[in-house]
Amino acid sequence: MSASDDPQILLTNDDGIESPGFRALYDALSEIGEVVGVAPADDQSAVGRTLSRRVEVHDHELGYAIAGTPADCAVAGLESLCPGADMVVAGCNKGANIGAYVLGRSGTVSAAVESAFFGVPAMAVSLYVPGGSGDDWRRKASDIDDYRGAAEATRYLVERAPDAGVFDEADYLNVNAPWVPEGRATRMEVTRPSTLYDMTAERDGDHVDLIDRTWDRMETGDIPDPVGTDRRAVVEGRVSVSPLTAPHTTRHHEGLDGLVDGYDPGATAPSVED
């Protein structure tokens, strides 16, 4: 491929532009295209598709650091800072973004969703890091090399997915790589988001602790997710690739049709006493 044919890749994330996962993708993707970083200046994890009206932009050696959210970065990048981008890649996130319930929370995934609404192929990339949320988890995946496997998988998909017609059907790919510290190669699997939901809340005096028990279950392998789901693939050591669409889907419900057709404001309005 000649230099003129190299794709322009807008790279963003939610862990911040200085994170090792971001740098790992930047280095890997720079071997196959022109990479322009447009990423948050600091950690913006789990902000979903929160959007600002005005953000500060600072030049950075990898592109631009934005004082805003991942969705801000996607909009600012595609409309102003990198308008010619052929693809948007968000990641690599420290921590998996798997399961249907996570998709709307994740800043990483939200950047890909925002990009898809612009009609630009997008990919969200995350690394499963076992260990819950304690000190052990924080110490892991702190070096660029820890993301090598995820970066290699991302490069493979970025190089081949457009020509394979993947984005004729999918608006974006949600990619999750397993934890493989030694960096050995892993297989890929096309998956669907798991529907497992195991949130609980426990009151402690004046506080309520919100606990996602899924992560502990993943570490022990105690998950009911069937074969073909993103969580099952990652727990068993495979790279999960979920082809997804950006707009919320709708289904035809005859019961709802009848309910709406039968609506009579006068008959259903509550009486008001003087």
UniProtKB/TrEMBL annotation:
Keyword Iron-sulfur: no
E.C. number: 3.1.3.5
Region (Disordered): 242-274
Cofactor binding remark: Binds 1 divalent metal cation per subunit.
Residue ranges annotated for the Survival protein SurE-like phosphatase/nucleotidase domain, each copy included: 9-194
Transmembrane stretches, start-end: none
UniProt cofactor(s): a divalent metal cation
Subcellular location: Cytoplasm
Pfam families in alphabetical order: SurE
Positions annotated to bind a divalent metal cation: D14, D15, S45, N93
Annotated GO CC locations: cytoplasm
InterPro entries for the chain: SurE (IPR030048), SurE-like_Pase/nucleotidase (IPR002828), SurE-like_sf (IPR036523)
GO molecular function: 5'-nucleotidase activity; metal ion binding; nucleotide binding
Keywords linked to the UniProt accession: Cytoplasm, Hydrolase, Metal-binding, Nucleotide-binding
Function: Nucleotidase that shows phosphatase activity on nucleoside 5'-monophosphates.
Family from the record: Belongs to the SurE nucleotidase family.
HAMAP family: SurE (MF_00060)
PANTHER family documented for this protein: 5'-NUCLEOTIDASE SURE, PHOSPHATASE, PUTATIVE (AFU_ORTHOLOGUE AFUA_4G01070)-RELATED
Record-given protein name: 5'-nucleotidase SurE
Species assigned in the record: Halobaculum saliterrae
Organism ancestry: Archaea, Methanobacteriati, Methanobacteriota, Stenosarchaea group, Halobacteria
